Amino acid sequence: MLVADIKEIIENNKGDIAFIIGNGINRYSTNSNVLSWNNLLIQLWSDVSLHTLSKIPPGISLTEFYDILDLENTQNKNLQTRIVSLMSKWEPLNHHQLITNRIRDINAPILTTNFEDTLAKACKLSLFKTNKGKFTDFYPWTSYYGDSQLVSPIDGFGIWHINGMINYHRSIRLGLSHYMGSVERARNFIHKRNEENLFSGKNMNNWRGFKTWLHIIFNKSLFIFGLGLEENEVFLRWLLIERIKYFKQFPDRKHKGWYISKKEDNAGKKFFLERVGFEIIEVDDYSDIYENIWK
Per CATH, the architecture of 3-30+91-294 is what? Predict the structure, then answer.
């Protein structure tokens, strides 16, 4: 698809859109100091393991690699604290600022699967909470970076961290057990009552997830980029399945979805995304994703 067409999608839907951004935004750089999650994991490996490893071998997901890394951690070092220490040094690059400012201009929410705060640093944002009451630093799902206090996550621009944030090191979701914990917590929010109440409540102000970033998933059109969304990403994939089930129950509440990536041959992922309501948008070059459509 042409850059102009993608820009038109964003412009035509700016009143009902949220952006889900993955680690691709950090990997895109001509700078030698590229922000690399893979390199960070290898650095953690060297901190805790007696075995030498220079790169993550093919055939293992990053989630599985962390679980193996945890098994190697015989000295019980706090890996989440170490990750916060390493990521706190990451600084935004030009495209971080370009993208964040553009989304800020249209007053749309950002959901990110990343832990670090490069997007927030790009716009010098402050930390807010939508719920001033009960709070757990394991799941700070009511916390966001923004310019102002929001009543609801869908009210305007803010940066929400799906898998944890470096402000709360215990929130960082790394291994499979961590992600299963997130699924269980989200399930308790979504399926707390019977199915009838579940499906009638997600766009109301009285369901348990109203003050969390979960509310964005069910009440905004989603524009996903920089995210591999491979089969190991069970938490977000499960949420997208719950989302389409909700829309099938209430078609009048349906929102759109777009997944943008460089051209790839992955029939399974395309099949999944199309079945959960997303249009696949393919571009020729990463510069279209991280620069050109935002100018």
Answer: 3-Layer(aba) Sandwich (3.40)
